[in-house]
């Protein structure tokens, strides 16, 4: 049979046949292996991994929250124990603190009557405060307003803050008075020691030396005599 198709028509028909062949092969690949492996198998595996990952993250969140709650509960328990210990210690030290406050107050009130002897206990109280703290030996100034501060609602209350300010003012006054009296006592002790040394030297000296010592001290007192006359 003679070939009635031209060369261009033959090329078109060959191209159509190749396209049909490719479409058939592609459909088989996409519908069979591709669909099964990529569409079905890989997709299901990916979704499963994603669900496992979400479940793992939720479990980690729950574990972190439970750990945080346990830490907070432990802190609360420690705070409660600390407060209970502080209350118990305060109950034990309260009578001692009250007694030392009373002694300190009594020492200030009888300072003149005792000719300054109670100044010894005031200095001892200050030293014990540095060693044992405020729980047993209150700071200067606190002995007068201890009961007032307790009745004002404590340290946090507004009235308590006003009492604290007054306590600080009294403390500074007492510190100044204590320092002045301590320096005065030191000078008095040094003066007494100087007089005792002069007396011992005067007793052991000869008659002429005694006269010279008396004359020297008279010359020292002459400016004082002129000052008042």
Topology of this structure?
Blueprint: H1 7-109, H2 119-132, H3 142-151, H4 158-204, H5 207-227
Question: Outline of this structure?
Answer:
With 229 residues, the protein is mostly helical. 85% of the residues lie in helices and 0% in strands.
What global shape is seen?
Answer: elongated
Helical content (DSSP H or I, runs of 4+): over 70%
Q: List low-confidence stretches.
A: 28-43
Query: Total strand count, please?
Result: 0
What Rg, in angstroms, do the CA atoms define?
A: 51 Å
Proportion of residues in extended strands = under 5%
Task: Assign the structural class, choosing from mainly alpha, mainly beta, alpha/beta, alpha+beta, or little secondary structure.
Answer: mainly alpha
The N- and C-terminal alpha carbons lie at a distance of 170 Å
**SSE order, one letter for each helix or strand:** HHHHH
Mean pLDDT: 74
* Individual helix count: 5
3D structure, described in words:
- The protein is an all-alpha fold.
- Helices cover 85% and strands 0% of the residues.
- The protein is built from 5 helices and no strands.
- It has helices spanning 7-109, 119-132, 142-151, 158-204, 207-227.
- The N and C termini lie far apart (170 Å).
- Mean pLDDT is 74; it is low at 28-43.
Summarize this structure as a short list of keywords or feature phrases.
5 helices; mainly alpha; single chain; 85% helix; 229 residues; elongated
């Amino acid at each position: 049979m003679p070939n009635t198709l031209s060369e261009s028509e033959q090329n078109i028909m060959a191209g159509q046949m190749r396209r049909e062949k490719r479409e058939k092969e592609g459909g088989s690949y996409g519908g069979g292996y591709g669909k099964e492996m990529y569409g079905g198998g890989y997709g299901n595996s990916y979704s499963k991994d994603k669900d496992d990952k979400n479940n793992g993250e939720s479990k980690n969140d729950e574990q972190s929250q439970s750990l945080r709650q346990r830490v907070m509960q432990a802190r609360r328990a420690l705070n409660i124990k600390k407060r209970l210990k502080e209350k118990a210690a305060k109950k034990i030290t309260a009578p001692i603190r009250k007694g030392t406050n009373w002694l300190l107050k009594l020492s200030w009130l009888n300072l003149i009557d005792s000719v300054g002897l109670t100044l010894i206990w005031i200095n001892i109280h200050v030293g014990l405060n540095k060693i044992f703290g405020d729980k047993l030996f209150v700071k200067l100034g606190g002995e007068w307003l201890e009961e007032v501060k307790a009745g004002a609602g404590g340290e946090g209350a507004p009235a308590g803050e006003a009492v604290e300010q007054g306590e600080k003012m009294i403390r500074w006054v007492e510190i100044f008075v204590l320092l002045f009296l301590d320096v005065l006592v030191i000078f008095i002790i040094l003066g007494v020691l100087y007089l005792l040394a002069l007396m011992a030297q005067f007793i052991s000296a000869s008659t002429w030396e005694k006269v010279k010592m008396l004359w020297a001290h008279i010359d020292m007192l002459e400016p004082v005599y002129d000052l008042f006359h």
